[in-house]
Design brief:
Layout: H1 2-22, H2 28-38, H3 45-56, H4 63-86, E1 90-91, E2 94-95, H5 97-101, H6 103-124, H7 127-149, H8 158-183, H9 188-215, H10 218-221, H11 227-230, H12 236-242, H13 247-258, H14 264-276, H15 279-297, H16 305-319
Antiparallel strand pairs: 1-2
Helix pairs in contact: 1-3, 1-4, 2-6, 3-4, 3-8, 3-16, 4-6, 4-8, 7-8, 8-9, 9-15, 12-14, 12-15, 15-16
């Protein structure tokens, strides 16, 4: 990852500076909450992808910096809203904004960030980028609602699960890559390649998140182990395990997932069930397959430092532990 951050250091410094400017508001609480969330240790994965895609496609303008900030603002707004929906107490190892300031503040500051993104996009003057990111935020909202409908539904299969994470998570990562190519007036084939690259690594990213939720330590992952289970979320480690269990085990998981509070014993039972049925390994394998597919889309571009950096970022997705 160091080679990637070194390559992008100058542009990322400019992105961070623009964050501070765009968070400026006459309402001090907006600045306070925005600064808290944006400085809480995010990887800046989406901005880096957009900057690298623009570099790969030989973009020579300045709007990539503003739009890298836009995708991070969109991501941050969704995190603020998600933590309210999920009643999350931790985010990236820190107290979540809704725990510190309350649900109303978190939702409203999230709304501010969403509104700010459209103001920035209009200022860039690229109608195609505006349309692309508007469609993306719509799809993300649909994915969140579909995930809500899937809550505690043990009939959710792998296909339904993938539909949700494609819309909820992968679509913004795909958009970040696509925007970089669109800015550079890349060919239709190159734009599509960058979008598909982003979609595949976005799916892999969420697959790894969902695997880590069951195995990573809180100090590493930044949130409570088993949080998805506590929220009744059907993710691939559990979905795969449920295809292998007997009727008694299935009934026990059904009981656990309907409980108001997840006990340590119930969490341990489900984690052991997932481990016995290779739910984590299966999920990681699926993520690795997505990364292999993603890197194939980069082959239409000539070798370059930007292409190499994108390949490094893709590999990082399955190597990370937080």
């Amino acid at each position: 990852m160091k080679r990637v951050t070194d390559l992008l250091q100058e542009d990322m410094d400019r992105v961070e500076a623009r964050f501070q400017e765009h968070l400026s508001s006459d309402v001090p609480l907006i600045n306070q909450v925005g600064q808290y969330v944006l400085s809480s240790g995010g990887k800046r994965f989406r901005p880096m992808l957009l900057l690298l895609a623009a570099k790969l496609c030989e973009y020579e303008g300045q709007h990539h910096v503003e739009l890298a900030g836009v995708v991070e603002f969109i991501h941050t707004a969704t995190l603020l809203h998600d933590d309210v929906v999920d009643s999350a107490e931790l985010r990236r190892g820190n107290r979540s904004a809704n725990t510190v300031w309350g649900n109303q503040t978190s939702v409203l500051v999230g709304d501010f960030l969403f509104a700010k993104t459209f103001s920035i996009m209009v200022g860039c003057g690229n109608l195609e980028v505006l349309r692309l990111l508007a469609d993306t935020t719509t799809r993300m909202a649909e994915g969140e609602v579909q995930q809500l409908l899937n809550t505690c539904d043990l009939e959710v299969d792998e296909a339904r699960y993938l539909d949700v994470i494609r819309s909820k998570t992968a679509i913004l990562i795909a958009a970040a890559c696509e925007v970089g190519a669109v800015l550079a007036d890349a060919s239709a084939e190159q734009v599509l390649a960058m979008r598909e690259f982003g979609l595949e690594i976005g799916i892999a990213f969420q697959l790894m998140d969902d695997a880590l939720d069951y195995v990573a330590e809180q100090k590493d992952f930044g949130k409570e182990k088993g949080h998805d289970l506590a929220e009744g979320k059907m993710t691939l480690p559990l979905i795969h395990a449920l295809t292998q269990v007997d009727a008694r085990q299935h009934e026990e998981v059904a009981r656990i997932i309907e409980e108001e509070e997840l006990s340590a014993a119930d969490l341990e039972y489900v984690c052991e069930l997932i481990a016995m049925n290779d739910g984590i390994e299966y999920t990681r394998k699926k993520a690795a397959e997505r990364i292999d597919i993603a890197k194939q889309y980069l082959q239409i571009f000539p070798p370059s430092t930007a292409r190499e950096a994108l390949e490094i970022l893709a590999d990082y997705v399955v190597a990370r532990n937080k």
